[in-house]
Give the backbone structure.
Amino acid sequence: MSSKPDGQPKVSPLVYAVTVNWNRADDTLDCLTSLSDSTYDNLKILVVDNGSSDGSPEIISREFPTVEQIHNSENLGFAKGYNIGMRHAMEAGADFIFIINNDATIARDTITNLFQNSNPKTGILAPLINYTDFPTLVWSSGGITNSWTLEKRDPLFDKEDSDDWDPVLTRDFVTGCAMLLPRKTLSQVGYFDEDFHMYYEDMDLCLRVRKSGLEIFVIPGAKAWHKIARSSGGLDSPNERYWMARSSVRYFRKHAHPLQKPLIFIWRLLSALRTSIRLSGTNRKKALKAYWEGLRDGLMEKI
């Protein structure tokens, strides 16, 4: 917090940190601990509880009495849960909204670092996200999107974190695991598409942000750590495979242009075959069945 010329304290822009919890109190407490330790001096924290049955709201209230909570009566999914939280933050006057998965944590200076790199053309700012279990190994640095297949590629995925990278990385896409959104982005572009329920809503939002003329940046000096797919039951669980498949179909159907569709169809078919072989090879029959059910349901959805 700095001072105005007349000597009065200057209040920093209000940042609202929003996370969604569903029956994962321990993960959420870790997330809240890291947020509460932030160096940013005008931060409010909001937990949107998606109908937890494990006593999460009471546990959070006891451990973090100043953290705001919104209690949904049922699990409304990632997109709708975060939208409820972001709308609350906007109504409360937030200048920036920092959304973070409840199975992620951040460094003390992450929000401050992101905020200091904002400029008038910024649509989204994101930290470098490493694995919680391998703290110096990159899980996500955002991605570059192929203009024909709409697939994303992360050039730093699974690389060792380094001080040699550029301080600001321009990206087409960043994961919804952790991102800082200026108020103008939501006012101009809108919120997550709630029809995705879980997965690909972040890619959809990023595509809309770039189409609006705003830019997306990753700040490698800002750090986050992710426990990976905890909210959906873990990687290659039936629930994770179902929603990943269903949402992928919705995303490509929603955004593919007519000239792209034949190539995307071939690419996605090959991807489905590779995934099926992998799941079969590891004897994940329930996950394989859920995966194809997700593809079927995605194709039957109205867009």
Remarks:
- The longest strand covers residues 215-226.
